[in-house]
Amino acid sequence: MPKQNTHLAIFFMVLAAVSFATMGALVKASTGHLPFLVAVLFRNVISVIPLIIYFRVKGLSFRVNNRKLMFARSTFGFSAMFLYFLAIEYLPLSLAVVLNSSSPVFVVIMSGLILRERDVGKLIPLVVLALVGVAWLVFGRQSPEAGVKPFSIGIALLGLLSAVLAAAAYVAVRKLSATEPSARIVLHFGLWSSFYSVVALVIAVVAGYEKLEPAVIWDVISTPKSLLMLIGVGLAGLGGQMFMTAAYARERASIVSGFSYLNPVFAYFIGLLVFGEPLTVSGIGGGLLVLGASLGLTIMAEHNSTVPKPSP
């Protein structure tokens, strides 16, 4: 266990937020040439290779004690990532990131319904506040006054569903942690996600999904700039995981978790500066409600054990 160091832990969490925001931006940029499925593949394969090498070098066991729950955690996690990257392709970057960052809200709900944890009732006001923020964020930007081109509410709801599935994965991680070390959970998530990514891409190619003809894929990824962006998606995602793990290893979640919400903040400014996304009242107001409520729920994690620490 690394020695407790608050300043270093905060620094690592800020780096994690930068890494995840960079990953989202690279996904957004890469989807200008290829559908999000290719970015999903690179995100998982590039991330899992160093983990496999680490396990081999350290002589660690790959064996899973609870296979069914590990499968469920990996499936929920991949589905959440799949929908998150889909949302990034079709929605403003800041909106997709904020919707995905609302997962603590659904963790609270699932903890009460599935894990039967007590003291969930007193967190309901924060849950309601976050849901109001989501409604304002989504439907407010549909209005003509928002000054933006209306997007599909269906895609926004899929982005929100990514947060629901991420919450299900977090709940599964909580139960898995009783029998599995965190490194093994991360490794098997990467292995399953890489498998799912290949299957999804093959199905999309066979089905004739837009811009996914083999020749087109090769033309794009053979371009150095496009290839570097896709590799960057995987490296940024891996870096985010590593920095977040290092932060939680050095300080309590109640102290460092708040800095993880710099991810949507960074993503918001990247959207403004790089992708020309407009500044809107609903974007700022709804985003602040969602992030504020989610932050409050996360900070309360160590006080009542209702909200689990984010999984590394």
Low-pLDDT windows of residues:
143-149, 306-312
Report the order of strands and helices. HHHHHHHHHHHHHH
Which structural class is indicated by helix and strand composition? mainly alpha
Task: Please report the distance between the alpha carbons of the first and last residues.
Answer: 15 Å
Helix content: over 70%
- Number of separate structural domains: 1
What shape does the CA trace take?
Answer: globular
Mean pLDDT: 83
Largest sheet: none
| Rg calculated over all Cα atoms | 19 Å
Number of helices: 14
Number of strands: 0
What percentage of amino acids are in beta strands? under 5%
Q: Quick recap of the structure?
A:
This protein is an all-alpha fold and 312 residues long.
Write the layout of secondary structure elements.
Elements: H1 6-30, H2 36-58, H3 67-90, H4 93-100, H5 103-113, H6 124-140, H7 153-176, H8 182-206, H9 214-221, H10 224-250, H11 253-256, H12 262-273, H13 281-299, H14 301-304
Explain the overall architecture.
This protein has 312 residues and is mostly helical. It has one domain (6-304). The protein is 74% helix and 0% strand. It contains 14 helices and no strands. The chain has helices at residues 6-30, 36-58, 67-90, 93-100, 103-113, 124-140, 153-176, 182-206, 214-221, 224-250, 253-256, 262-273, 281-299, 301-304. The longest helix has 27 residues, at 224-250.
